[in-house]
Design brief:
By secondary structure, the protein is an alpha/beta fold. About 40% of the residues lie in helices and about 20% in strands. It has seven helices and nine strands; from the N terminus they run βαβββαββαβαβααβα.
Length: about 200
């Protein structure tokens, strides 16, 4: 892969608020960010659109791309539920002169960091507690109790990986977490934050 801009990874257990943080950062023009759309073999939910929320693929199509080495990283998150980052997606965004931001599974995030150690900022978003996560996931009411329990079990494992990331943001207060995320990314991509003082 030809190298381009920076890579910014946000990983966290489901319900930690990473998607909200990533959406906020994408709205800050001075950061020059573009979102890396993941590929998945899971069915669409609600109003999700192909090529906007995800690149939706059949399981066999996904496996074909794995065989061809088309992914920067991929994982079978749950049985027959594959997620991955296409190399072509990152190259497309780099060609547009953008820094690429990822809202991605913990192990996928760490794999990208390993491949591009210099170009990558890997941020782990930590929820206040596993109990709080459970409350947030139930509030979404998009999944069954079984699915939620699976996510909670996975969250405990994911929380143990936090020290492997470059930075940890504790999302106890969303406004504080957003400011912290903005300052981290601005510093990494070499943009001054609006309220940063000159030394």
């Amino acid at each position: 892969m030809t190298k381009g801009g920076k890579l910014i990874i946000f990983s966290a257990p489901s319900g930690s608020g990473k998607t909200t943080i990533v959406k906020y950062l994408l709205d800050q023009p001075e950061l020059n960010l573009a979102f890396s759309i993941s590929a998945t073999s899971r069915p669409r939910r609600g109003k999700e659109k192909n090529g906007v929320n995800y690149y939706f693929m059949s399981i066999s199509e996904f496996k074909k791309h794995i065989k061809q080495g088309d992914f920067l990283e991929w994982e079978e998150v749950y049985r027959d539920n594959f997620y991955g980052t296409l190399k072509s997606e990152v190259e497309r965004l780099w060609a547009e002169g953008k820094n690429v931001i990822f809202d991605i599974d913990v192990s996928g995030g760490l794999r990208i960091k390993k491949k591009f150690p210099e170009e990558t900022l890997a941020v782990f978003v930590k929820p206040p507690s596993v109990d709080e996560l459970k409350i947030r996931l139930k509030k979404r009411s998009t999944e069954s109790d079984d699915k939620i329990n699976m996510r909670i079990a996975k969250a405990s494992v994911e929380l143990a990986t936090a020290p492997q990331f470059d930075k940890i943001i504790k999302n106890y207060d969303l406004d504080v977490a957003l400011k912290e995320a903005h300052a981290l990314v601005a510093d990494f991509v070499g943009t001054k934050t609006p309220d940063s003082k000159e030394d």
